[in-house]
Every structure is written in structure tokens, then in C-alpha cells.
Fold each of these.
Amino acid sequence: MADTTSVGAKNTLASADGTKLAYRSWPVKNAPITFAVVHGFAEHSGRYERFARGMAAHGMATYAVDLRGHGESDGQRGHVDSWSQWVDDASTFIDHVESAVKGVVVPLGHSFGGAVMLSTALAGKLRSARRFVVSSPALRLNVKVPAWKLRAADLTARIKPRLVMTNEVDPSTVSRIPEVVEAYRTDPLVFRSITSRTFSEWRKAAANILAHADQIQVPFLILAGTADKLIDPTGSVDLHARAAARSELHLLEGRYHEPFNDLGSDEVFAIIAQWLNKR
């Protein structure tokens, strides 16, 4: 039986600019692989217990960070001054995990965290990683954003960057498991806002990722649910097409936005383990 703690041991580290970041760890004795997980927007590391337990069944350990403005880390909820700050958070965290464990560290990013991970790879800041994983990478929205919000985003990002808007996330779209949806809906660390600067920074980052995906040098696995109502899976298909030499794509039939917290998650954990074991 894998040795994991139920909610993850908590600790903190300082990002490149000194911002305090919280993180959790789910150790597995003598794990040959440890994941360094970056969560999606408006959520936090504590929601990756199911992932940690799923990968522990394959003998793999998990660490997960709270990006600034999320979970128990410092910063205004849902705000980033520059996308590069989240890239620095991710890079600092991955470096920390690599220094803390034996064996191979595999970075993994979900949704917005997937976009952050791809930006980190493009910036050359996955310094030691030999491969990484992205889940439902946030490259194209599959929710209808009001036209006024799109028009206002770039303007307000410049003149009022901390303006708070609703992030348009419907909890029922994250999973087909009612208990997961209810836990998301009532989680005090999950929030419903996004700032104008964050939204603008994400749009620019997503466009940059797709424009330069062929420059990613580290092999990576892409997971995307075909029934994702939050993030359009065609973004993952396009990403794979632009980085075909470095990527492998698994479209998960009928899955919602969070494949690690959805029905059939054991199959997803097995896909990841098989991909890692064959490389």
C-alpha cells in the first residue's frame, strides 16, 4: 500500500520576488517519480488529493503548489500583475521539488496551470525536466464571455488592472461526480472572481503559446476531455498539431474539465503512468 497522507503535508516557500507560496506534498516511499502540480484558475493544491492517491497507486508521489493569489498563498485573489509572475512561481516550485526529492520530477499543469506550464517551457524555465504533462490546458475558452467583458478587458487591464469581474465558472462543469461538484461549490478556498489584468494576461499568453508551440523542446503529454464545457478541447488539438514532434495527445471521450476528478479517473492515471514508463 502506498504511503500517502490524507490531505497532504503543508509547507511554504518563497517565489522569485519573495512572495510566499503554500504547497502540499503526498509522499510515497522510494517513489521513482514525483509530480510537481500547478492547479487551475480560482482553485488550489488541496483539490489534488484524488490525483495524488491515483498516482500513488502507480508508486508515484505528488507535490502541488498554490500560485500567488490562490489557496493559502499570498496575493490578491485571482490577480497577477504579469503572467511572468506565475511562470516564476511555477519554476521556483519545480526547482524546489527537484531539490527535495530523489528520483525524477515531472511537472504537471491543469487548465490555467497547464497554460502556465507551457509558458514556463517556452521561457526555458523547466530547467531539469525531461517531460511534463498538461491537463485541459486553458488555450481557448468554451464558455461564452460577454462581449462587453472582452472589449473592456484590455482597456481596464491598463487603467484599472485590479478591477474584479466574475470568472463565469459554473461548478457543474468541472466533473460528472455530484460530490466533486458540491465540494467545489462549497470550498472556501475556491473563488468566483478574476481581475481585468489577469484576464488580459491570460489571453496574450494563450495566443503566444499557440504561436510558438513548435519551439517547445521538452516532450509533453496533453490530456483533454471531449465534453469539457469550460476549456475548448480544440485548443489541445491545435497545440498537439503545432508541437507534434514533442507532444502526445489523449482526447478523453465524454470527460468534463477535471479528468483527475471525473468519472473514469483511474483510466487517466493509467494513461499518465504508461506514458511515463515507456519514455
Amino acid sequence: MKKYFQWEYIKRAMDVVQLLIVVLGVGFAIYQIKDFANNQLSRENQLSILYFDKLNSGVNKKISIAIEHSNPS
């Protein structure tokens, strides 16, 4: 039991803990990057839908129809 309290074993255990923390940290960072990309795509889609809805409502509906039919009036 006394040999486990020597500095060599404590240092080795700390190195193992550090390695596990680094591996988990890298995995978490990769997950966050993928999640960020998905959130950005979701916001872009929401913005596109918002613009489409705004263009196809009210007075802008006439403009949208004119653009679709290439009608200048």
C-alpha cells in the first residue's frame, strides 16, 4: 500500500487523468463545432422562410407575381 503513495505513482495517475480530460475536451469541442454549424444552417433557413413569407404577403405579393412572370408592370 505504501508504494501507491510514492510520487512516481501519483504522477502517473495524474498524467492518466490529464490525458482523459484532454481526450474528452477534444471530443466536446468537435461536438460543439458541429452543433454550431447546424445552428447556423437552421438560422439561415429561418431567415429564408421569413423573407419568402414577407415577399409573398400583402402589397409585396404583386411584386412577387410580377417577378415570377417577368412582367414589368
